[in-house]
């Protein structure tokens, strides 16, 4: 890992850790508050994260296999 | 072209997109009538178009390069970028249709944005058809490079300019505010910008993989 990359990952983590402070709007609009407060939105997030991580790993493995084939030539 | 064989930018792209799944689904968003929680689609629907744009721009770059250099690799890079762009184009259209169903009422309501996006899609499909209809390799490469260079600005006008000049349901059109207005008020940027960047590089990554496969196939055919 280069220093540059570490810096980038660090700033990404920083980004993820800051929370947006926002004023509540007076208008009542139906939102999925209940889902979030009961914590179950995390299940959905995890599912998406697992799927995307799987796809990304798949892409990485394709990349590796290609590298091998390219070296043979 | 060492860049396409390196891993660091692929890791960063994956991390950026992963971060948007968490920030995009958990962070607060403006409470808007009709749109409700679907405003979060902004982090997933719009980046598909950004990814498409990125690979299409790269494709035009390689088409121009092909015309000046005549190297076959440049032609192959241009094609594979368009192929990847079409994948993201389809994803953008489909996610847009789904979003439209629950906010505009219909999957396809003949909105100017939707119609011109469909026309531009056909424009790029014609590029693939044009390529496949020419047997002679150099002729095919040259003609499709020229077509590609002209198709790109027409696509930009169709998707991003014309719909904004008429009344469209799509944000950013006909006095209809774009979501940019809300991003500025709220923390939506934290998820939105990494999503745009991350998905752009994922699109580029898929295009480079396709290009490398093409190169290997090409070498095999020459032998």
Measured between the Cα atoms of the first and last residue of chain B, the distance is 23 Å
Given as residue ranges, the uncertain stretches of chain A (5+ residues, pLDDT < 50) are: 18-25
Query: What portion of the residues of chain A fall into strands of 2 or more residues?
Result: under 5%
| Poorly predicted segments of chain B | none
Total domain count of chain B: 1
Oligomeric grouping of the chains = heterodimer
Percent in helix of chain A: over 70%
If you compute it from the alpha carbons, what radius of gyration of chain A comes out, rounded to the nearest whole angstrom?
20 Å
The number of helical runs of chain B is: 7
Mean pLDDT figure of chain B: 90
Measured by residues with Cβ under 8 Å of the partner chain's Cβ, the largest interface is: A-B, 39 and 39 residues
Amino-to-carboxy terminus distance of chain A:
28 Å
Helices and strands of chain A, in order, run as HHH
The beta-strand count of chain B equals: 0
Which structural category fits the helices and strands of chain A? Answer: mainly alpha
Global outline of chain B: globular
Largest sheet of chain A: none
How many H/I helices of chain A? Answer: 3
Helix content of chain B: over 70%
Output the structural class of chain B.
Answer: mainly alpha
């Amino acid at each position: 890992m280069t220093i540059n990359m570490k810096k980038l990952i660090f700033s990404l983590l920083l980004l993820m850790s800051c929370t947006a402070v926002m004023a509540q709007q007076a208008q009542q609009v139906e939102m999925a508050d209940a889902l979030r407060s009961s914590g179950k939105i995390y299940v959905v997030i995890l599912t998406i994260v697992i799927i995307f991580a799987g796809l990304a790993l798949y892409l990485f493995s394709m990349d590796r296999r290609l590298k091998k084939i390219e070296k043979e030539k | 072209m060492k860049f396409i064989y390196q891993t660091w930018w692929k890791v960063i792209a994956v991390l950026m997109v992963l971060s948007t799944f968490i920030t995009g689904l958990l962070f607060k968003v403006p409470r808007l009538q009709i749109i409700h929680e679907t405003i979060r689609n902004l982090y997933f629907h719009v980046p598909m178009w950004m990814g498409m744009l990125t690979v299409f721009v790269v494709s035009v770059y390689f088409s121009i390069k092909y015309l000046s250099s005549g190297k076959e690799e440049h032609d192959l890079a241009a094609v594979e970028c368009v192929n990847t762009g079409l994948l993201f184009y389809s994803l953008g259209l489909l996610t847009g249709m789904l979003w439209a169903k629950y906010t505009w009422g219909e999957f396809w309501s003949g909105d100017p944005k939707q119609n011109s996006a469909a026309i531009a899609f056909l424009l790029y499909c014609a590029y693939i058809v044009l390529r496949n209809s020419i047997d002679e390799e150099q002729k095919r490469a040259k003609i499709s490079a020229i077509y590609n260079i002209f198709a790109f600005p027409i696509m930009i006008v169709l998707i991003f300019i014309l719909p904004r000049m008429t009344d469209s349901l799509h944000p950013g059109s006909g006095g209809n505010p774009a979501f940019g207005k809300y991003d500025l008020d709220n923390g939506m940027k934290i998820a939105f910008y990494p999503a745009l960047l991350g998905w752009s590089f994922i699109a580029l990554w898929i295009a480079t993989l396709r290009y490398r496969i093409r190169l290997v196939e090409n070498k095999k055919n020459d032998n």
